[in-house]
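Please check these two lines:
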Amino acid sequence: MTNKATHTFAGKLLLNEPLARYTSWRVGGIADELYIPADLDDLCLFLKSLNVAQPVYFIGLGSNLLVRDGGLRATVILMHNVLTALEMDGDLVYVEAGVTCGKLAKFSAKQAKQGGEFFAGIPGTVGGALAMNAGCYGCETWQTVRRVMTVNRQGELHTRDAAEYLASYRHIAMPVNDEWFVAAWLAFEPGDADESAQNIKDLLAQRLASQPLNLPSAGSTFRNPLGDYAARLIEASGLKGYIIGGAQVSEKHANFIVNVGGANALDIELLIKHMYDTVLQEHGVSLQQEVKVIGEY
């Protein structure tokens, strides 16, 4: 826990906070404490105050995350709408971790930069996109990264070159443990602002047509296996529309699980397991989970 007796913070500390409010599935148990920093300096001060044994989790939009119903005996730090700087730094786009990927895409387009339009299809924050090398439409976050800023458990900031990280499909190898992304400098090619804006509109229309955006979900449940698509394998296994409790395999996109009403985290986790087991049995393919699961049963 925090040593609140010796520190005064500008942010907001919430005790026993339900995390269902902060995840896109709208499920999840209670966190011992949740902190909403006022700014980057306040975040650093808060991290310095934490007991070294206290587990820490950072959450953006909670769009690739399943928090179990037992919650977290930990400190959760909310980044969305906190670290929101977004500006040009020379030829690079400087963006902080709490900015939504959609906002980054639109900003880059307005700056007559091309190559960042795909961020409009990522339903999360830049911090989450950096942490998992999020991508869509054939593009990935770390293709654009030139350097990043991180913060560690001691509240110390570090600027690191992109070459210090090993990026792969939906994964980034961190050179140092217990560091979190707070900002990045991204490089895009010169382009036409109107053309990039139209590309974003086209991508969003494609997303709306193919994904169940009208129901709570967490994006893709599984990574695409090499040379195939998880959605195709799940659909071919007869799982579209399959329901456990209030969780359903989307009838619109088989790699999405939607909360059709009243789902809890256990419903979703059991459904993820059933999808994995069925695809393995029917097709001999071991799907790799994309959704991160944390917390206690």
Observations:
- Residues 87 and 188 are 13 Å apart (CA to CA).
- The longest strand covers residues 145-152.
